[in-house]
Write a structure and sequence with these properties.
- It is built from 16 helices and 2 strands.
- It is mainly alpha-helical.
- The chain has one domain: Cytochrome C Oxidase, Chain A (Up-down Bundle), CATH 1.20.210.
- A two-stranded antiparallel sheet has the order 1-2.
- A hairpin with a 5-residue loop joins strand 1 and strand 2.
- The longest helix has 36 residues, at 71-106.
- Bound molecules: protoporphyrin IX containing FE (HEM) and copper (II) ion.
- Residues 51, 54, 57-58, 78-79, 81-82, 85-86, 89-90, 151-152, 399, 403, 406-407, 410-411, 449, 463-464, 485, 488 line the site of protoporphyrin IX containing FE.
Length: 558
Amino acid sequence: MSASLRTDGAREISSPERSGSVLHAWVTTVDHKKLGILYIAAGLLFFVIGGIEAIMMRAQLAQAANTLLEPQEFNRLFTMHGTTMVFLVGMPIVTGFGNYLIPLMIGARDMAFPRLNAWGFWMFLFGGLVLYMSYFASMGLYGAGTAPDVGWFAYSPLAGKAFSRGNATDYWILGILISGFGSISGAINMLTTTLTMRCPGMTMNRLPLFVWMMLVVSFLMLLALPVLTGAQVMLLFDRFLGAHFFDTQAGGDAVLWQHFFWFFGHPEVYILMIPGFAYASEIIPVFSRKVIFGYSFMVAATLAIGLVAVGVWAHHMFTVGMGQGLNIWFAVITMLVGVPTGIKLFNWIATMYGGRIQLRMPMVFCIAFLGQFLIAGLTGILLSGAPLNWQLSDSYFVVAHFHYVLIGGLVFTVFAACYYWFPKMTGRMLSEKIGRWHFWLFFIGFHLTFTTMHVQGVLGMPRRIYTYPAERGWEVWNAISSTGAILQGLGVACFFVAVIVAFRRPAQAGPDPWNAWTLEWSTSSPPPAYNFLSLPEVRSRRPLWDLKHPDDPDWEHE
Ligand code: HEM
Ligand SMILES: [Cu+2]
């Protein structure tokens, strides 16, 4: 690194990435900001792919006895859609925002392990490419390809060699296994950076809630992902080396796979959801012009959710016959998660109460999130009771529930985060006008698609069926549901139009367009490669407010 004096007398530090082409700079970068943007951009690209797969399924289900898709094609679509949305959309986007924001929020110049960080991104991307290679090469290099069709949780014995011939399932295993290394290295980086690279005065009690929540997410990633990796290696042994871990006929245990998968799978949904909580916890106070209500309770509730999340996995397995005792245990502990989640919902609403609400796009998406996540939580509590679960398991009620969590919870808060931090990342604002089209098309589409699915489920429609007879009375609900999926697609298209329009305009956002309080807004937009010329010293949870109002330290609300 070399330094030279700028005209304003400040020292200018030039980063090693200045040499070579723009492409070279992005491909060889170890900078957390660039890697964060690459993760988010790749996640959004896979979101479009996963969304197209969803719309194709909805087109097939729009009417009874439809012949648009073959049964095998439908199986491949829900497998690839579910796998893509969870591992290639949710994971990179939450890792991307964590990567971009944690060093800036704690007053550090980069992540603890920049090269590991770069390795992690390329492993994630390579894993995603391996999964999609299945479309081209899974029937041997010179044969046609078929994507994996065993569902996103690949239950045994379906995923065993006896039922899943060819290599499609191996592409599923390897794609996730490789991208998993990316997530594990991201978790190591986020955790180490938060614990060891905070600037002077940034005590744990002054950490932005975003950073606290990503800390819990990192722990959950380190706990859950290796279990999936281990189980996948066992499945590879079954498929290639004659082992029988999950082969019941040869003395193995198919239910063992389910325990391994969901010991990973349930924490996974919180690995995806807690970042959404993090975005909302940063955005809601700024647009209510009030500090967050109950900072310590928010931290404690997040730790409690993280803890409970590793003990509830078998609520996905009430129908395998675990026995009364375990059913009661997993039902009760699952219901328990309603307490810390309720505290969070209460604190977000209490933060808005009496505040000066500014309905800018980040806040509008967050307000929708609050209502939708409440619905998702309530149907989750419903499904956590084993007797009711026996009725609704594997029905469209379950599909509706997890989409309310993953879209109503995660995707809405991810869009809020995009509108909020896009100006910091690019120096440009996203259009509020186009944003409102995006929001209403996506909001109405979302509720049309998934509210009706609750009804389909209660009326007995099982998930993963590629068609259904007209006389079952599911047709109207499916037609509405499919119409909603189209509206969602149009809403997402508006978002990308807003991004394109923003890049055609000059960068005029300035360092702090929202008048916010955390350290990332103290840097220019976009921030310089080295983040901070000299490391900041903080003395409260609102370092930027302290800088702007040195005489008014105890500010609570405007
Ligand atoms: C954007 C709008 C979306 C639509 C219209 C949609 C629609 C669907 C449909 C129709 C299915 C298949 C249901 C079945 O046949 O069983 C499905 C399954 C699934 N979706 Fe979505 N989805 C969307 C977004 C998402 C997102 C954002 C996520 C996760 C972050 C997600 C995760 C899943 C999962 C995990 C499955 C289960 C796949 C399986 O059964 O193996 N979806 N979705
Ligand atoms: Cu669960």
